[in-house]
């Protein structure tokens, strides 16, 4: 039920806490992180929105715009922000979509197309599938999808790590190994022949197996 990686992120118009947006225009030439919540005033999501607000400078450094989503209306988002600031020490400093017609949730296949009615009468359990993270590139393609259960808070350090990998591998023909962090060795992409690799990496590489060619992270 989830949109595949590599497909174009659906465009949409929506009301947010920072005014009406057209999604692709709002992204512009940046990267974007769209993350969704089943309901306002839910405990795990409250911690997540506060954590992300504190980490916003890290996303800014990477040229990543943040935008949240809940099916509840904008006025409830504003009241929720007060709780988030009080309990987490930081209020959202990025827009939150009020997806009261479920349009975005349906476009991104987080809710069935048949979903309708008053969002305020729906419980968090009714919307439990609205717990996704989408990372979208400047080309408007979906680069990563993560889906979390309601009981597990998102790890934003991992999301930053993934963004570092995505941005590095978009620029250089490399891949990142398990548990890779910024500055560590990388793997030459399989699409690069040995002849090409000798030109790109004249200093050579480590090769524990012919299909594993390890080099320092490109600058």
Summarize the structure.
The chain has a 5-stranded mixed β-sheet with strand order 5-4-3-6-7, covered by helices on one side. By secondary structure, it is an alpha+beta fold. The relative contact order is 0.16.
Tell me about this structure.
This protein is α+β, with helices and mostly antiparallel strands and 219 residues long. It folds into 2 domains: 7-152, 3-Layer(aba) Sandwich (Glutaredoxin); 172-215, Antioxidant, Horf6, Chain A, domain2 (Antioxidant, Horf6, Chain A, domain 2, 2-Layer Sandwich). 31% of the residues lie in helices and 22% in strands. The protein contains 6 helices and 11 strands. The protein has helices at residues 23-27, 43-61, 74-88, 103-107, 156-171, 194-200; strands at 13-16, 19-22, 31-37, 64-70, 96-98, 132-136, 142-147, 174-175, 186-188, 206-209, 212-215. A 5-stranded mixed β-sheet has the order 5-4-3-6-7, with helices on one face. Strand 10 (206-209) and strand 11 form a beta hairpin. Helix 2 (43-61) crosses helix 3 (74-88). The longest helix has 19 residues, at 43-61. It is elongated, with a radius of gyration of 20 Å. The model has no long low-confidence stretch (mean pLDDT 96).
């Amino acid at each position: 039920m989830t949109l595949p990686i590599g497909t174009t992120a659906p465009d949409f118009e929506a009301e947010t806490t920072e005014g009406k947006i057209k999604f692709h225009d709002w992204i512009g030439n940046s990267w974007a992180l769209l993350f969704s919540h089943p309901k306002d005033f839910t405990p795990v999501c409250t911690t997540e929105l506060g954590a992300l607000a504190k980490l916003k400078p890290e996303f800014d450094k990477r040229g990543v715009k943040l935008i949240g989503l809940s099916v509840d209306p904008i006025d409830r988002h504003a009241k929720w922000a007060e709780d988030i600031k009080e309990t987490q020490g930081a209020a959202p400093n990025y827009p939150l979509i009020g997806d009261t017609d479920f349009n975005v949730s349906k476009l991104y296949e987080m809710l069935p197309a048949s979903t309708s009615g008053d969002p305020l009468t729906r419980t968090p359990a009714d919307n439990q599938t609205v717990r996704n993270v989408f990372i979208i590139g400047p080309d408007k393609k979906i680069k990563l999808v993560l889906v979390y259960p309601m009981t597990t808070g998102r790890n934003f350090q991992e999301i930053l790590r993934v963004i570092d990998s995505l941005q590095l591998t978009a620029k250089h023909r490399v891949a990142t190994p398990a548990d890779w962090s910024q500055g560590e060795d990388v793997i030459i992409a399989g699409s690069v022949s040995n002849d090409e690799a000798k030109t790109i990496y004249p200093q050579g590489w480590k090769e524990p197996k012919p299909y594993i060619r390890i080099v320092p992270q490109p600058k």
